[in-house]
Amino acid sequence: MMLSVIVAILVCLASYIYRSLKPPPPRVCGVPHGPPITSPRIKLSDGRYLAYRESGVDRANANHKIIVVHGFNNSKDMELPISKCELSLEKIHLHVRAYQTQIKAKTRVAFIRQKCLDLIEELGIYFLFFDRAGYGESDPHPTRTVKSEAYDIQELADKLNIGPKFYVIGLSVGAYSVYSCLKYIPHRLAGAVLVVPFVSYWWTKVPQDISSKAFKLLPEDVRWTFRVAHYVPWLLYWWLTHQWFSSSSIISGNSALLSDTDLVIIKKMLENPSPHTEKVRQQGDHECLHRDMIAGFATWEFDPTELENPFTEGVGSVHMWQGTEDRVVPREINEYISKKLPWIKYHEVQGYGHLLSEEEQKCEDIIKALLVE
Q1: How many angstroms separate the CA atoms of 292 and 173, rounded?
Q2: How far is CA 75 from the centre of its chain?
Q3: Residue 52 and residue 66 in contact, taking contact as beta carbons nearer than 8 Å
Q4: Is the model's pLDDT at 44 over the cut of 70?
Q5: Could you tell me the fold of the domain covering 40-371?
Q6: How is the chain split into domains, by residue range?
């Protein structure tokens, strides 16, 4: 009798542990009871779909075609504030007053937006944004890796007939996709930018003292989350959904990770929130956020410090932008990489944190450095 009770308890305990560790199935877009499909998508060779969004000048007439890789907890619906860089507020008000008596309020807004697009049209820029696997309306990819990111980008470009070469810009975690492109498809690149780029504290060629120094700058809960993602990725879902750890700074966006400049930028963004925010994680946190960390902190097949310059003939360039006050990605490791790879043009922005690309002038500087300088 007692043995039966013990066995029953163990079975129940095992069942509870299994359910706690196993993530829920994704809410795939376009299937019954799943989120609706509202964006154009392309079908990849493995059957998955990638959702995308085009912006800027017409694809066929563009001088520069840029694929933008969004960061953690973001999507293709992110906006680069480059479209606001051409006109100062003073000039905008002058244009408004000049046309005040001729056009209604809604038309006035459209007019201002058109004037602000002059910079993009002047340079002939076409932007291609896409939801990385599991984000927004792109299908989940349970076996996603750093390597698979490059081939997703290449296939997206080919399906949309972007051409033999294109630029890539990776923001934050999205920068590991750019590293992947530099490694696996360098022949397809016209140029590349790593903005406040992701770092792994387990890259083997980065000196241990530098990795340890940068790692210790992170909040303790973030360090533990990254350790779990690297050493026991199958435990990450439980770790981030258990009540003891659900307030992890990396998921909740705790202000401890934000610089003073970041807080100012966040305040401005909250005044005009994106209507697409609710779609970012609609297929489940595990399919986007958790798998992002698992892929990024896994053991890579290459080390960034060993990458070769894809532009030895001088046509094209690679840039890295880093804020000195970045608390999400401490600058120590990126500084080291830029010294090991002098062909990467390193731009250190004083006084800025992780959200430097959200500032209008800095975003313009990033684009111009890639396309003009």
Answers
A1: 8
A2: 8
A3: no
A4: yes
A5: Rossmann fold (3.40.50)
A6: 40-371
Which H, E and C letters describe 251-280, residue by residue?
Answer: HHCCHHHCCHHHHHHHHHHHHCCCCCHHHC
Q: What is the 3-state secondary structure (H, E, C) of the chain?
A: CHHHHHHHHHHHHHHHHHHHHCCCCCCCCCCCCCCCCCCCEEECCCCCEEEEEEEECCHHHCCEEEEEECCCCCCCCCCCHHHHCCCCHHHHHHHHHHCCCCCCHHHHHHHHHHHHCHHHHHHCEEEEEECCCCCCCCCCCCCCCHHHHHHHHHHHHHHCCCCCCEEEEEEHHHHHHHHHHHHHCHHHEEEEEEECCCCCCCCCCCCHHHHHHHHHCCCHHHHHHHHHHHHCHHHHHHHHHCCCCCCCHHHHCCHHHCCHHHHHHHHHHHHCCCCCHHHCCCCCHHHHHHHHHHHHCCCCCCCHHHCCCCCCCCCCCEEEEEECCCCCCCHHHHHHHHHHCCCEEEEEECCCCCCHHHCHHHHHHHHHHHHCC
Distance CA 27, CA 134 (A): 10
Report the distance separating Cα 83 and Cα 275, nearest Å: 18
**Residue among 359, 357, 291, 289 nearest 322 (CA):** 357
State the average pLDDT over residues 144-165: 97
Whole-number Å distance between alpha carbons of 182 and 320: 13
pLDDT tens digits, 8-36? 454 444 444 545 568 889 999 999 989 99
